[in-house]
């Protein structure tokens, strides 16, 4: 296990914030993970699991130990005539798993192309995009209990997946470390082009019989158009979740705002937070090095030297102004540490 003391986290969070941690353990296998847990429990140290750092905002320096998961490995656990069960270790890049699946013509993950981060973090908020969610291809996961160091298997029902939500953000928050995820992929697959932008891509590119590789290409092209690449512009994707409100409340807001962007979500209504923020006048706003992305108002960006405080202050005034204008409370999607 590699140990680093007094480490800069600049390259370990996609916001690119220049904060430090007291210590970091870089973990390459389950034995090292066990060892790190023993250390933390016996030293009563604060600890944080870090994967790709693409959904985290550090409020400042972290006075504890970062457990950086780098456990690699991907293998076929089982193959039937219709499905492939692919077991992927937590430290694999999410998009490499998607690319691998698509190149083998196993369907289900292609709509989730190019989401940053690692496989181990994907169940935490049940990542989703372009008409699909992790839960659609999820079969099971194996996680380590941080108290005992024992491994436990969770099936789909156990994970209580919801929109940007799972049991690991609620009752089991910080209690388990996800070590591997097993996906159930389709050999005889269908194409999911329900998202309008994907459909438009097929029309524009004269693709009449799309394959899953075309879906992947479409999603990559749409994402590159809309979302900033953290390599060049610090960000953590959507800063807030799309708020879900009652139909009654929605009707009242709609009376005053007939153009409001919304979708049905079971018996409720999901609003587009990006639209609310844009209408509140924030799109393209910049103060010092913190700003609101000019192509997607739901993304807060670091133009280079923003401090945690700049990002947090901006997010707070956005919340306040959206609440004052629409009476809707925005909730952070990013984990604030
Ligand atoms: P991290 O940021 O390292 O961790 C996130 C949280 O999970 C932390 O609380 C961490 O402690 C915990 N955690 C991480 N790994 C584990 C583990 N193995 N066991 C237990 N806890 C763990 N998300 C979407 O859903 N859809 C999108 O379309 C999308 N687009 C994005 C676009 C951009 C440009 C960016 C920067 C982000 C986007 N995101 C999106 C958010 C992000 O990519 C996902 O949330 C991703 O799953 C985070 O993975 P990570 O490895 O970076 O996790
Ligand atoms: N919109 C605006 N102004 C904006 C942004 C959006 O008016 O600045 C409106 C437009 O009408 C647009 C609609 O909102 O058509 C939806 O926008 P988009 O397709 O970009 O999706 P989103 O709802 O803003 C969600 C996810 C993204 C995911 C995309 C695609 C959340 C919080 N965000 O964004 O996930 O990639 O859908 O499915 O659910 C993330 O979680 O980090 C993330 C990027």
Q: Could you characterize the architecture of this molecule?
A:
The structure is a single chain. By secondary structure, this protein is of the alpha+beta class. The chain has three domains: 2-69, Uridine Diphospho-n-acetylenolpyruvylglucosamine Reductase, domain 2, CATH 3.30.43.10; 74-186, Uridine Diphospho-n-acetylenolpyruvylglucosamine Reductase, domain 3; 234-336, Alpha-Beta Complex (Uridine Diphospho-n-acetylenolpyruvylglucosamine Reductase, domain 1). The protein has eight helices and 20 strands. A hairpin with a 2-residue loop joins strand 15 (262-265) and strand 16. Helix 4 (196-204) crosses helix 5. The longest helix has 19 residues, at 308-326. The protein is globular, with a radius of gyration of 20 Å. The two termini are 24 Å apart. Flavin-adenine dinucleotide (FAD) binds at residues 14, 48-56, 69, 90, 115-118, 120-122, 124-125, 127-129, 177-178, 227, 230, 235-237, 335. Uridine-diphosphate-2(N-acetylglucosaminyl) butyric acid is lined by residues 129-130, 226, 237-238, 241-242, 261, 272, 274-275, 278, 283, 296-298, 333.
Features:
alpha+beta; Uridine Diphospho-n-acetylenolpyruvylglucosamine Reductase, domain 2; Uridine Diphospho-n-acetylenolpyruvylglucosamine Reductase, domain 3; 337 residues; Uridine Diphospho-n-acetylenolpyruvylglucosamine Reductase, domain 1; 3 domains; four-stranded mixed beta sheet; binds uridine-diphosphate-2(N-acetylglucosaminyl) butyric acid; single chain; 26% helix; binds flavin-adenine dinucleotide
């Amino acid at each position: 296990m590699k140990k680093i003391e007094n480490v800069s986290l600049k390259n370990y969070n996609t916001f690119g914030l220049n904060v430090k941690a007291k210590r970091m353990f870089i973990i390459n296998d389950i034995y090292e993970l066990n060892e790190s847990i023993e250390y933390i429990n016996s030293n009563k140290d604060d600890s944080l699991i870090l994967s790709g750092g693409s959904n985290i905002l550090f409020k400042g320096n972290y006075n504890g130990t970062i457990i950086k998961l780098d456990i690699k490995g991907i293998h076929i656990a089982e193959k039937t005539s219709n499905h492939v069960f692919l077991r992927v270790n937590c430290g694999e890049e999410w998009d490499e798993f998607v690319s691998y699946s698509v190149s083998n013509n196993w369907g289900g993950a292609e709509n989730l192309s190019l989401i940053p981060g690692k496989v181990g973090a994907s169940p935490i908020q049940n990542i989703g995009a372009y008409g699909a969610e992790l839960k659609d291809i999820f079969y099971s996961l194996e996680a380590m209990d941080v108290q005992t160091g024992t491994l436990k298997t969770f099936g789909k029902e156990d994970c209580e997946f919801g929109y940007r939500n799972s049991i690991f953000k609620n009752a089991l928050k910080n209690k388990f470390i996800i070590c591997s995820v097993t996906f159930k992929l389709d050999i005889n697959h269908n194409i999911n082009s329900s998202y309008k932008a994907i459909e438009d891509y097929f029309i524009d590119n004269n693709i009449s019989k799309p394959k899953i590789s075309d879906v992947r290409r479409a999603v990559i092209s749409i994402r590159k158009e809309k979302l900033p690449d953290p390599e060049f512009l610090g960000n953590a994707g959507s800063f807030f979740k799309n708020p879900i409100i009652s139909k009654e409340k929605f009707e009242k807001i709609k009376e005053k705002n007939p153009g409001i962007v919304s979708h049905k979500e079971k018996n409720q209504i999901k609003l587009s937070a990006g639209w609310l923020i844009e209408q509140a006048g924030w799109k393209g706003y910049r103060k010092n090095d913190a700003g609101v992305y000019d192509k997607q108002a739901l993304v807060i960006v670091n133009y280079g030297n923003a401090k945690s405080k700049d990002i947090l202050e901006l997010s707070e005034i956005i919340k306040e102004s959206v609440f004052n204008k629409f009476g809707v409370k925005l909730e952070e999607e990013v984990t604030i540490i």
